[in-house]
Structures are given as structure tokens and as C-alpha cells.
Design brief:
It comes from Trioza erytreae. By secondary structure, the protein is mainly alpha-helical. The chain is built from four helices and no strands.
Amino acid sequence: MLIYFSYLFMFYFGMVSFFSIRTHILMMLLMLEFLNLTIIMMIINFMIYFSFDEMIIVYLLIFMVCEAVMGLIMLTLCVRTHGNDYFKSMSLLLC
């Protein structure tokens, strides 16, 4: 039971840091990957505890890799068009 509280603490820490560190897009992408990793660890422990099929973990990892690649592509395109990776220079709402 204690391990689930540590995962919830990790998830909470990831959410707080994702919404508080909004200067660089790369830092936001790293926080999203941290949140995905926390969710994957929670799902793995849930599946081990209840002895479910582990094939869904492969699908979730494939989804995480595709998400990371798309984020890096968007980061590269933003740096090429704007010259930096500051979040304020990309968003029209925060100008």
C-alpha cells in the first residue's frame, strides 16, 4: 500500500512541476515523460498484483515512444522557426 502512495506522490510532483516550470518546451516535454513513466510503473504494479496479461505494457510503451518522437519533432520545428525553445515566444495567449 505504501508503494501506491509513493507513485501518487511522484505523479503529483510531476504535475506540479509541469505546471510550474513553463519556461522551456524541452522541460515541459521531460515532465510529460516523467508523468508517463509514473503511470507505466503504476500499471505494471497493478498488473503484477492482479496477474493480468502483460502485453498491454508493450502497447503503452509504443505509445510513449511515439509521443516522445512527436514532441521532439515539434520542438525541432519550433526552434527552427522561432530560434529558441521558450514557451512564451510560441504561445499567443501568454504574449
